[in-house]
Design brief:
Blueprint: H1 3-14, H2 18-42, H3 47-66, H4 75-97, H5 100-138
Length: 139
C-alpha cells in the first residue's frame, strides 16, 4: 500500500461516523477472512500467511465486540457480543487447526450480519431525517 493510499484510508476512517466504522470493520473482517481462506485453499503450507490474515480477522472481531454498549438495558448488545465471540473462536480454531471449512462456514453469517447493519443504518438515518424535518415544521 502506498503512502497516498494510507493517507486516503486514514482520512476516510477519521471522517467516518460511528455507524460507518462498524461497516468498515465488517468489510475488514470479510476481506481478511476471504484472503485467509484463499491462502488456506491455494497454499495450505503457508502457515504464516494464514496466521497473519486470520489474526487480522480476529482483531476485526475484537473491534466489533469492543464497539458494543454492554451497559445498555438491552439484550441486543449482549447477543451481538456472543455472536462476535463465536466468530472469533472459530477464526482462532481455524488458525490452530488449519481448517478452511471453519472460515468458509462463517462467511455467509458475517455477510448477512453486515447487510443487516447496512439496512439498520439506512432506516436509522431515514427516521432521524424525518424527525428533523418534523421538528423544523413544528418548531
Amino acid at each position: 500500500m502506498t503512502n497516498a493510499n494510507l493517507r486516503y484510508l486514514e482520512a476516510s476512517i477519521n471522517s467516518a461516523s460511528p455507524e460507518e466504522l462498524v461497516i468498515k470493520t465488517y468489510d475488514a473482517l470479510l476481506l481478511f477472512a476471504r484472503q485467509a481462506l484463499d491462502v488456506m485453499e491455494s497454499r495450505p503450507g503457508d502457515i504464516q500467511g494464514r496466521h497473519d490474515l486470520l489474526r487480522r480477522a480476529q482483531r476485526a472481531c475484537a473491534l466489533l465486540m469492543g464497539s458494543l454498549r454492554l451497559d445498555l438495558d438491552s439484550e441486543i448488545p449482549v447477543n451481538l457480543f456472543r455472536i462476535y465471540e463465536f466468530w472469533h473462536h472459530q477464526l482462532v480454531a481455524a488458525n490452530m487447526q488449519g481448517d478452511p471449512q471453519k472460515v468458509r462456514d462463517l462467511l455467509p453469517h458475517i455477510m448477512g450480519m453486515r447487510e443487516t447493519w447496512v439496512e439498520a443504518i439506512k432506516k436509522y438515518r431515514a427516521e432521524t431525517a424525518a424527525h428533523r424535518e418534523l421538528g423544523a415544521l413544528v418548531g
